[in-house]
């Protein structure tokens, strides 16, 4: 009976089982990779969604002041000067949001360009108000 266990038939049967197990494992992986490839290709064909950067409402004054100063040292913040389109409402969170967005847009709209020590928030809704149009490049 021992000779039956090591017979050529047994080895052939073991190879068939091994082959079917391999197919059962790799076939779903192949399907998954094809599906992911299609998803990536279709997402690259779509237009990117517009985004803006604004200050988180929970940010404290010191952080907002720091964000405003830093952003305006890197980009042109003339729109925030008195009698300009984005001066009103004349409050810190509004001014910081405009400046942070100017910086975010100028640096390429990467999520890390809106981080500002975790006080920035990327928005998919245009935050423009009144005559103040938030820049989108």
UniProtKB/TrEMBL annotation:
Give the GO cellular component terms, alphabetically.
plasmodesma
Q: Which residues belong to any copy of the X8 domain? A: 51-134
Among the Pfam families in the record, one is X8
Q: Write out the entry's keywords from A to Z.
A: Signal
Gene3D superfamilies, alphabetized: 1.20.58.1040
Top-rank taxon of the source lineage equals Eukaryota
The record's listing under InterPro entries reads: X8, X8_dom_prot
Q: Which PANTHER family match?
A: BETA-1,3 GLUCANASE, CARBOHYDRATE-BINDING X8 DOMAIN SUPERFAMILY PROTEIN
Q: What's the protein here called?
A: Glucan endo-1,3-beta-D-glucosidase-like isoform X1
Q: What is the protein's species of origin?
A: Elaeis guineensis var. tenera
State the gene name recorded for this protein.
Answer: LOC105033898
